[in-house]
Amino acid sequence: MKNIFYILIFSMSLFSITLKAQVERVIVEKYYVSDANDATDTTGGILDIGSTTYRIYIQLTPGSKLKMIYGDTLHAFKIASTSSFFNNKVDGQSFAKDFPKNRYQENTVALDSWLTLGQTTRVGAKTYFGVLKTQDDDGSFVGGINNDGGSAAISNGLISNADPLAGIPVTTSDGMDTMSVLPSSWADYGILSAGIDSTIFGSIKSDTSFISNNMGLQNSGATGVNPDSNQVLVAQLTTKGEISFELNVLVDVPGLVLPVKYVSKFAASDFNSDTLRISPYLTYPFACGCKDANYLEYNNQYSCNNSDSCKTLIKFGCTDTAACNYDADANFNLPSVCCYPGYCNDRDIAIICPKINDGRLREPIISLYPNPANDKIILEIAAGDNENVRYKIYNSLGAIVLESSLGFISGNVNQLINIPNIQTGIYLLRLDCGDRNSSKIFVKN
Questions:
Q1: CB-side neighbour CA atoms (13 Å) of 130
Q2: Are the C-beta atoms of residues 157 and 147 closer than 8 Å to each other?
Q3: 302-344 pLDDT per residue, tens
Q4: Closest CA to 434 of 400, 386, 392, 393
Q5: What pLDDT digit, counting tens, does each position of 13-43 carry?
Q6: Contact 429, 391 (CB under 8 A)
Q7: Residue 436 confidence class, pLDDT cut points 50, 70, 90
Q8: Least C-beta-crowded within 10 Å: which of 99, 155, 384, 412?
Q9: Which tens digits make up the pLDDT trace of 397-410?
């Protein structure tokens, strides 16, 4: 039993290590909520009052790098809203890496919708990357006194709303900080056409969704500002509607030669492997359910926990009614713990099934002798309480040569069976004792 237990634990540990996901979760941060002052600006375009700016972060295991966000023929990339997305029509960018730092201080540029792999802006030798406002401790260069006030020249500047729905005001923490290790080799496809962006990340047309099976933004590999949490910003989205997305990402994993693709949905031919895995976190709104593995309702495909979904606590045991240690209360079968007369995984059946000793669960045949036999055999029978007992003897061709009903028997008895008239050869005796049966082979001289 101990060996089986250790093998089970080792196997579960190996499975966990092999399939450990590098995409730990996806964070949707409410970055800002627009107010009436922001709506006065006409330079950057109309920004509706109450529009929310969201930031999407991919949290990876420490040491992993985000190399790409993409859509391919089997896995569509999708970002959508129930209302149009806002893009600054003068200084907006499709990719945050292309923003000069001083542009964030102009009208509503800081609320533009864009994609990225971590990087948000640059100035001189400094390159800034996205970080959750709750983890940003270097102040802000966005909004309020840092803003030019837009076309209406608002005296205290734009982007200064302190709506608690958006957490820390961006005038206190702008969600940007510098890093010394920078990604390189930036490349993109499927967004710009001849340098022009007509998607939801450009200002040419107002739209509510971007769905593509042929797009990508990539670099040499981006990490988070804080190595321990390793949260990499991938998008900023401003809209008055409710957002949804299906993302696919390419992750560089320490120790692995090839990067791993994480997708929001599997195609019909897909399966989890060392280079392709599905992640429930890459789909938003998140699907919530039971994430407690102690319950039958547990499903690792849920991206958020709903404790109300966890209803049936798992009880391990043997659910095979033919086993002597059948557990009627168990709801999760462990075949390796099931014990049967004659087979108990090298364990002591008398300990596992103490009732075996009262004769009710034992094999009906205790012994058959002599063997080889001449004119008679003695059958030692272990009957239960008033069990109907009968036997049949079969020859090597499977034909019955002798059978008899012994009636109702209780306890252990010896039964003499005369066999002078059967021919020399090998025979099988089958004994039925109530709803139990067993067989013995013997030789007739």
A1: 30
A2: yes
A3: 888 888 999 999 998 999 888 888 998 999 888 888 988 767 8
A4: 386
A5: 333 333 468 999 999 999 999 999 999 999 9
A6: yes
A7: confident
A8: 155
A9: 778 899 999 999 88
Are residues 29 and 133 in contact, defined by beta-carbon separation less than 8 angstroms?
yes
> Do residues 276 and 260 lie in contact, with contact meaning Cβ atoms separated by under 8 Å?
yes
Q: Tokens 């606590």 belong to which residue? A: 313
Q: Quick one: which of 239, 235, 260, 236 has its CA closest to 250?
A: 260
SS3 125: coil
Question: At 18, is the secondary structure helix, strand, or coil?
Answer: helix
Which structural domains are found in the chain, ordered by start?
23-278 (no CATH), 363-444 (2.60.40.1930)
The token duo for 72 is 């391919």
Q: How far apart are CA 371 and CA 429, in angstroms?
A: 12
Residue with tokens 């600054």: 88
Give the integer Cα–Cα distance in Å for 48 and 51. Answer: 6
CA-nearest of 320, 386, 375, 398 to 353 is 320
Distance between alpha carbon 430 and the CA centroid of its chain, in Å?
A: 51
Residue 181: pLDDT over 80 = yes
| pLDDT reading at 356 higher than 60 | yes
**CB burial of residue 165 (10 Å; 0-12, 13-18, 19+):** exposed
C-beta separation of 394 from 442 below 8 A: no
Backbone φ and ψ of 105, nearest 5°:
-95, 5
Write the single-letter amino acid at 162. A
Q: For residues 22 and 64, is the Cβ–Cβ distance under 8 A?
A: yes
Provide the β-strand partners of residue 442. Answer: 427
Q: Taken in order 106, 109, 111, 116, is the CA torsion positive or negative?
A: negative
Task: Indicate whether 300 pLDDT > 50.
Answer: yes
